[in-house]
């Protein structure tokens, strides 16, 4: 909830009061971390049935293509080999993994003021994705994403107060070598933001050298592991119901270096998971539980975000459908199930299929993000800047989505009901007095405490809008993005840190 105690000195006279109001509230009325969980698409009985089916899948069907090292660890933990190439995971091992998993843990920012706590009922919007195209800020046409784009996206979002953490949102297609790509991706993040960050590692062998770079940033050998400010995104399970060896190796490497993980399941309804929504939820839950069990047998109690991301395809064409009503429903249900288990949850939203910043863009983003937030997803990925069913990333999108998140956080904050807010006496005074509430002390207090004022949305009347050039939301967001990119050039690495990194690594 918001701290309402802050205040600012008011300027004298009418012009001063107008300036105060134009400046906005002295405190953010609905900052990130508002409480979710109000929307419950599933009953407790339905969740129980889905969970039991997931556990039965693990115990009777089991997991395939289990790498030898993980197979040995699972067997030591109580799993069995069925002799037909599958490892069966009993429910008592699932229960132990759930019981041992941290229920809350910090995602550190290099700036401690930007650290967030994941888990419980707090909701944070962040980023994700691996877009291979950028919606060009000048031409409005998609082109291949570059390393410069990643630097620019990172410093742009560094200024956006409603984006809680930053995961690389695009892949630098101009960096062909996988290690150079992984290394320079992390360099772009630490150079341009002090928020919690996240990335992926192509191979386990890339983890240790990148941690060396992170140690330079953190202040010396071993310092990063003491307070890790980077989280790994890993997809160790390949739907349906099998492990991926390279990603499992990355899990072991990240556990060794104390890197928190988001273990992501990304099954697709009707393709790699059942088309029925209940069947999809059961299989997807089983696969994410398999990731949790894996982390449990590798390093009990290691921080993991239970990232069960239901994806949907258009069954008529096979195309990914990130902005559908089914996507909104399934990710909300996934968040509810994860909260029922008591583990930190991650879901995906705002994966609009729209290519332009248009009505489809707004509808699909608002619908999916609000559903995920109201259901209580702790970390909502993909929620900023993504377009074209995750194939594209947009600078204007980051600006508009940041404002959308403010509205969503305000919805989550809800209605505070007490004797003061019920306002019995102020209603009587207005009715028996001036007949309105304008200028009253309660109105002024509520104005600065309870209302979110979007900085970009146009609330003028039509003639004023026309006189200002009839700008669209896309126009306004483009201008704001340009202004930020022209003026915000953070220097979060000291010259000594940057020189030490460049002396040891190939920084492009």
Distinctive features:
508 residues, 45% helix, eight-stranded parallel beta sheet, 21 strands, disordered N terminus, single chain, alpha/beta, TIM Barrel, four-stranded mixed beta sheet
Write structural notes for this entry.
With 508 residues, the chain is α/β, with parallel strands linked by helices. Helices cover 45% and strands 12% of the residues. Strand 20 and strand 21 (392-394) form a beta hairpin. Helix 5 (147-157) packs parallel to helix 6 and helix 6 packs parallel to helix 7.
**pLDDT averaged residue by residue:** 94
Number of strands: 21
* CATH homologous superfamily placement of the domain at 98-413: Trimethylamine methyltransferase-like
What's the helical proportion of residues?
A: 40-55%
| Percent of sequence in beta strands | 5-15%
Detail the poorly predicted runs: 1-10
Distance between the termini: 43 Å
Counted by DSSP, the helix tally is 19
CATH third-tier fold name of the domain at 98-413: TIM Barrel
**Overall geometric form:** globular
- What is the CATH first-level class name of the domain at 98-413? Alpha Beta
Largest sheet: 8 strands, parallel
Label the CATH architecture of the domain at 98-413. Alpha-Beta Barrel
Strands, helices and their partners?
Layout: H1 13-22, H2 44-61, E1 63-64, H3 68-77, E2 80-81, E3 86-88, H4 91-100, E4 104-107, E5 116-119, E6 124-125, E7 133-135, E8 142-144, H5 147-157, E9 166-167, H6 178-192, E10 197-199, H7 207-218, H8 223-226, E11 230-234, E12 237-238, E13 242-243, H9 245-256, E14 261-265, E15 268-269, H10 277-298, E16 304-308, E17 311-312, H11 325-341, E18 345-348, H12 359-375, E19 379-381, E20 386-387, E21 392-394, H13 395-413, H14 419-422, H15 424-432, H16 441-449, H17 462-467, H18 473-487, H19 495-504
Parallel strand pairs: 6-19, 7-21, 9-10, 10-11, 11-14, 14-16, 15-17, 16-18, 18-19
Antiparallel strand pairs: 1-3, 2-3, 4-5, 7-8, 12-13, 20-21
């Amino acid at each position: 909830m918001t701290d309402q105690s802050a205040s600012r000195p008011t300027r004298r006279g009418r012009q001063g009061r107008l300036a105060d109001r134009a400046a906005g509230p002295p405190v953010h009325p609905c900052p990130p971390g508002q409480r979710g969980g109000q929307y419950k698409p599933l009953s407790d009985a339905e969740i129980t049935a889905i969970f039991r089916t997931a556990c039965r899948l693990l115990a009777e069907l089991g997991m395939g293509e289990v790498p030898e090292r993980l197979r040995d660890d699972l067997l030591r933990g109580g799993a069995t080999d069925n002799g037909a190439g599958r490892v069966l995971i009993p429910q008592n091992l699932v229960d132990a993994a759930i019981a041992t998993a941290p229920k809350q843990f910090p995602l550190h920012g290099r700036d401690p003021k930007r650290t967030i706590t994941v888990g419980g009922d707090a909701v944070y919007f962040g980023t994700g994705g691996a877009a291979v195209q950028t919606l060009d800020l000048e031409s409005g046409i998609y082109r291949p994403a570059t390393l410069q784009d990643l630097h620019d996206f990172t410093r742009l979002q560094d200024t956006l107060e409603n984006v809680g953490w930053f995961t690389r949102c695009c892949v630098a297609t101009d960096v062909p070598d996988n290690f150079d790509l992984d290394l320079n991706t992390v360099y772009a993040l630490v150079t341009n933001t002090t928020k919690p960050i996240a990335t992926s590692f192509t191979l386990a062998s890339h983890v240790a050298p990148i941690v060396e770079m992170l140690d330079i940033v953190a202040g010396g050998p071993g310092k990063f592991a003491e307070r890790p400010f980077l989280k790994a995104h890993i997809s160790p399970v390949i739907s349906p119901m099998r492990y991926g060896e390279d990603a499992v190796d990355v899990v072991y490497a990240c556990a060794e270096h104390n890197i928190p993980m988001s273990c992501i399941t990304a099954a697709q309804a009707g393709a790699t998971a059942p088309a029925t929504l209940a069947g999809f939820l059961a299989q997807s839950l089983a696969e994410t539980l398999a990731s949790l069990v894996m982390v449990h047998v590798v390093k009990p109690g290691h921080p993991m975000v239970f990232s069960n991301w239901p994806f949907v395809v258009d069954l008529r064409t096979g195309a990914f459908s990130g902005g559908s009503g089914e996507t909104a429903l399934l990710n909300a249900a996934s968040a509810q199930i994860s909260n029922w288990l008591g583990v930190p949850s991650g879901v995906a939203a705002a994966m609009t299929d729209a290519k332009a910043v248009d009505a489809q863009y707004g509808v699909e983003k608002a619908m999916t993000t609000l559903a995920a937030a109201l259901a209580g997803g702790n970390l909502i990925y993909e929620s900023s800047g993504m377009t074209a069913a995750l194939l594209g990333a947009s600078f204007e999108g980051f600006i508009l989505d940041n404002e959308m998140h403010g509205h969503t956080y305000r919805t989550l904050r809800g209605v505070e009901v007490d004797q003061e807010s019920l306002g019995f006496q102020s209603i009587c005074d207005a009715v028996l007095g001036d007949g309105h509430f304008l200028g009253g002390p309660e109105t002024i207090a509520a104005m600065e405490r309870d209302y979110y004022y979007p900085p970009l949305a146009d609330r003028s009347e039509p003639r004023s809008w026309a006189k200002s050039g009839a700008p669209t939301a896309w126009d306004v967001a483009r201008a704001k993005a340009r202004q930020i990119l022209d003026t915000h050039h953070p220097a979060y690495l000291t010259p000594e840190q940057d020189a030490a990194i460049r002396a040891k690594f190939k920084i492009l």
